[in-house]
Design a protein that fits this description.
Blueprint (H helix, E strand, L loop, with lengths): L2 H6 L14 H32 L11 H12 L9 H29 L9 H42 L14 H12 L8 H33 L12 H18 L1 H19 L10 H17 L3 H28 L3
Helix pairs in contact: 2-4, 2-5, 2-11, 4-5, 5-7, 5-9, 7-8, 7-9, 8-11, 9-10
Amino acid sequence: MSAAQDALLPCEACAQPKPRLSRATKDILFGSVAGMISKLFEHPFDLVKVRLQTQPMKPAPHYTGALDCFRKTIQREGVRGLFRGVSMPLCGATLENASLFFTYNQVQPLLRDVFRVSKDEPAPMSLLAVAAACSGAVAGFVLTPVELIKCRMQVQMMTMHTAQADAPKDVRRALPQLPSALTLIRQTVREAGIRGLWLGFAGTLVREMGGGIAWFLTFEIATRELIQLHQHQHPSKLFAKKDLSSIDLAGSGALAGIMYNVSLFPADCVKSTMQTEKELRMHSKVPHAISRGFFATFAHIYKTRGIRGLYAGLGVTCLRSAPSSAIVFLVYNKLEHAADLYGL
């Protein structure tokens, strides 16, 4: 080989190391992608849940159950009706999962320093619970405006059908078109100021903090148990979370999704009721009724509908949250593993 050819060979000492993504960048990017994919799957179920939670009970409920709500929605609005208001949740899912994973993973090192827990040993569940609660608080703040607009869009079509049924035949076509998400945002800010976008924040905060603890800890406990099981079956190999199969990750994520909703579902019911009260009051022709706070709304639901009212829509919620949560954790962990594999 000539000296000229030798000079053209890459110098290992001069080679620049490939830049790696920071932990924060991975959390935001991977969490966003996982959230968007899961939201497209779960939105029809969420729409049914909100309509069951907020439907007027007098003179008779609109829907007898989840299947009836699905049937009537498709019958009256088509398949597209199941995705009514999906733009806001899609944006919200991106922000929610990015903030959840970002805060959860950023708070843990700080807590390790405070409680003097080495980074080489598994974090105790108490530490993870605090990190999960912090991530839930941040997500709750981010999500409240998104869910406010989403819930209002989801119940507007329900009230419009009743208005059409009550209106004379010759004026039914003159009923106004439903406002878009941006229109609702401007309307809310104009009527109640910026703070109006955080109506129902207490319910969202309670749900996200408590649910966040249940969500992350259930996934951590399930994956740790699976790692120990695989380790016992193959003692010669050192197992870690990255070695778990897609079924393992999806199963752990599905269990986490169910625990997230079952743990504090009444708070979500109260939040949805508070956020849709305006539309339902207009439907009841009592536009100037006084809005209730969190505990007053809780008491009103319990008084008028009992325990079943506080858990209305729980079945359909678990039906969508299990696969949705499975998608989130599966996509997030697979993207994280791929990034490590390719040195990103």
